[in-house]
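Justification of computing resources. Each target in the renewal requires a structure prediction run like the one illustrated here; the chain below, 514 residues long, is used simply to show the kind of job we budget for.
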Amino acid sequence: ADEVQVSDIKLAELGYKQEFKREMGLLANIGLSLTAIGVLTGMSSAFQTALFSGGPLVLFWGWNIVSIFMFFTALSQANRGYSNAAEICSAFPTMGGLYFWTCKLVPEKYVSFLGYVTGNLYAWGMVFTGTAGNLSVALYIASLIQVGSDGQTNLTNVQIAFIGWAVNIVSGILNTIGMRAIGNISRFNVWFTLIGTVILFVTLFAASPAKNNAQFAFFDFENFTGWHNNGLVFMLGFLQAVYSLQGSETSAQVSEEAQNAEVNGPIAIYSSIIGSWFVGLLYLIALNFNIQSIESVAGTSFAIPIAQLYYDAVGKKLALLCIFVIFLAQWAASLTAWTASSRLFFALSRDSAFPGRKIFMALTKESKAPYGGVWFSVIIGCILHLTYIGSAVAYNAIISSAAIGVQLSYALPMICRIIWPDILNDTNKGPFSLGKYGFAVNFFGAAFALVMCVFFILPTANPVTVLNMNYAIVAVGAVLVLIVTSFIFWGRFHFHGPIRTVDISADDLKHEKR
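Resulting structure tokens:
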């Protein structure tokens, strides 16, 4: 009870009324971030990216290098000195997350524009992330059918898209049930991820007919891209690890539903990166030592290329088991993206940074879930899945922009902290601090995020054709243009920074709690 009281008082100090049930404890918080990262799913779904751009060398060493920089980003989001995510989350435990942090880290004259852009960019990034994840669930189902039939049964794009629709609706229902359901799934997923990793690790080593040597598993360099610059190829291989490790900040989006949010939120952010790094390391070792043929994976007809690796390594029956493990993890990870987006739409509309305040601030009676944002995400997801029917290239461009939007949203608060280091003072700080290391952590975290944004828009194959061109730059450019345009014609007249909604002071609330 004391933990809830402290969080309520902190929220009142930030100017917001407590409107949600605080039902999430520390394990559920950590589980939410771990589930959102979805290390088994991200590494599996994007496995071919690094396999063809650097091979086992980039898969293994790229994972470790990227984990360090993503840990810097996570620390930035958690720390009390406001150098990073854990630091900032500790000081501002509100579901606005990256959006609210940006508002508090810039001079007042820039709050309207930078807060608006960051919040909307991240919200749409989460909608697109959930959309991509739910279609990946459909693709895993398609792969299970293909593997089960030895490649004889293939689903059409129409069938895959409509399976995606079904997954979207299930995600909407569960998110409407509320945080208790999401929290239970997140807690379960912590143990499922650990057990699932053991299953995958043991199955690959026990059943694969041939084992690769350490030289191959840790140092073999492959280049299927057509680019002749090995440095470029090496960096392109990083994208798999970056994609796999996004999502640690999700626990910050439910700060107003978490107990002891100013402490548990930061712990969830940085511990989820550490846990994901370790699980991912074990998983990569198993994959690198047991892949039977890179050429076979490159030429696969399976909907998810890594299904071919399992099919070659452990046979049909065990491959079905392994793919089913990843499928369940993918479903849980996708579920949390719209948990985040719905909370972001609530926070943005609460401050008039997004239209439809009555719709997006509406809560279900019992569970206190912001159902407007949930079903708005479902509708957008279903519309985007229709583009997959018409053009997989166009769909992939839209979805690729999600990773770029999320990375830009990570970078903005850190850049603001570097440019305006004196905006905040000691009175604003939370219980988690990086102290004198804050500037360095912010600098390296922001620099890495911006560099990765550049590589996310580069073509991954050469020669570049209409079919293999990376159209993510077009998609993310269109999203940014729409956000800036909406700010010019609507946002600047309505949004001027966070709006105070609490009708009682923090000091009065302290007395009331006593």
